[in-house]
Amino acid sequence: MMKRKYFIYTFALFLLFLSACRLKDAQVTPVGKPLEYAGPTRKIRELLDSTNLTVYKAIWKKVNMDSVIADGAWQAYTLLAPTDDAFAKAGITADKVKVMQVEDLDTLLFYHVLDSWLSGDQLKKLTGSNNMRSLLRRTDLPGFYSNDPYIYAQYLGYHDGKLMINGKPYTLKPLEAINGTIYLLDAVLNKPAQDMYDYLLNNPEFSYLMEAFRISDSIYQLSWKQPRMTDLLKTTAQYKSFTLFAPTNRAFQQSGFNTVDDLRQRALLYDVGDSYYNDNMYYVSPTTSLDSVLSANHLDFNAAMKPNYPLVLFSNDLTDNAMLAGFQIRPGSTYHEGPQFIRLSFANNAGSIMVKQLGSSLPARKLVTTDLLFRNGVIHVIDDGLFMP
């Protein structure tokens, strides 16, 4: 009897399984037409070939960029592609490309090719600028080597419907591929050719600023403190790129520093003193009285402390990112340096960028010049006073 019940039970399960496998009539019939794929269908090289970027493609071919891409194993990348008209404005035509040195064309094209992919849709979601690496590298700058070269960066962002590159606006014209994006440009991009130090030293309107740095540096040197601000203004592997708000001579005068001797007297207001651990056990490197006034101008990286984190902020970053005021640049670490913050706030006033030191009763200062790009960061210029507590 038990065997019979077991057989009936097993047979019933078998029939159930068999019927489940043959439930043809239970399948849902699709309704409507299949959705057609509307996205990109070509790879970026095919897309480039289909464009009328005659000069760009001529340079690409002459420098054998396909081999460069293959050697670097870049599967997806971004092209910044000036149009033929843009190249013509820069004095470069297809005929001129034929006689130009490959080394010069290398430098030009490598600066316009980025080793990662940022699509147009991704660009529009950015708040501020995205630091992207170009293929242009150097090993002849202090501390850089073939296995760890200096890499020229391009900072891409989106502001008021425009493509922003290094703080400058361009009409947004993305051509999308399945493994990259081509951004058409109406101008040829020029790589930065100077450090901040070279620029400030050779512009008389910043003589007070350079003298202020020199005076503070001499005091740090007497106290055996490193690094010094004039070193931070130079491109080396030891320091990261940063943002400098550079006051003109007039800005110093507007804040009561009418002569170089006034700067010297401020620097000697009190002794620097020895480094120490504060109540939170953070290591503190005291600054000169003069440098304490200027430290907010380079986002809290004073001359007694080197920038270990890259922080390059362009005009679109300052106006679009409300989180910058009071932003923590880096956390503190017990028995090491304490946390550092951006001690400035930013506002857009009728198209002008206004900057104010947090907690200060002084009015905001207008940036009279913005987005001066250098190998080691960016400078914005103030002319109507210093950021002071």
Give a short summary of the structure.
This protein is an alpha+beta fold and 389 residues long. It contains 15 helices and 17 strands. It folds into two domains: 44-185, FAS1 domain, CATH 2.30.180; 196-382, FAS1 domain, CATH 2.30.180.
The name of the CATH superfamily of the largest domain reads FAS1 domain
Give me the count of strands: 17
Approximately how much helix is present in the residues?
25-40%
Q: What is the strand content? A: 15-25%
Mind telling me the CATH class of the largest domain?
Answer: Mainly Beta
Cα shape:
globular
CATH architecture annotation name of the largest domain:
Roll
- Please state the structural category: alpha+beta
Radius of gyration: 29 Å
Uncertain spans = none
Reported by name, the CATH topology of the largest domain is FAS1 domain
Mean pLDDT: 90
Q: Number of helical runs?
A: 15
Domain module tally: 2
**First-last Cα distance:** 98 Å
Largest sheet: 5 strands, mixed
Physical arrangement of strands within the biggest beta sheet: 9-17-16-15-14
InterPro entries: Adhesion/Biosynth-related, FAS1_dom_sf, FAS1_domain
Signal peptide: 1-24
Keywords: Signal
Domain FAS1: 40-189, 193-386
